[in-house]
Write a structure and sequence with these properties.
Blueprint: E1 11-14, E2 21-24, H1 36-54
The protein binds zinc ion.
Length: about 70
């Protein structure tokens, strides 16, 4: 029986964006994402949704629209 001591392997977590194993360690500044790209994608999606939700239903108040000359 060969004992396999936990080497200094970095912990890995599934990237929230692409579900791929991302290195969860200081060496990965984009953690828990696998890359800066996935990080930006997730942030973008989040912001987009946030904007949608935050959109105030002030349509009645905005009834006086100017005629688009
Ligand atoms: Zn990813």
């Amino acid at each position: 029986m060969t004992a396999n001591p936990p080497a200094a392997e970095p912990r890995r977590v599934p990237c929230p964006t692409c579900k791929r194993p991302a290195v969860f360690a200081p060496s990965n500044p984009s953690r828990p994402f696998c890359s800066e790209r996935c990080r930006g994608v997730d942030l973008g999606a989040w912001a987009n949704e946030s904007y949608r939700v935050a959109a105030p239903p002030g349509r009645e108040d905005d009834d006086t629209l100017p005629d688009g000359a």
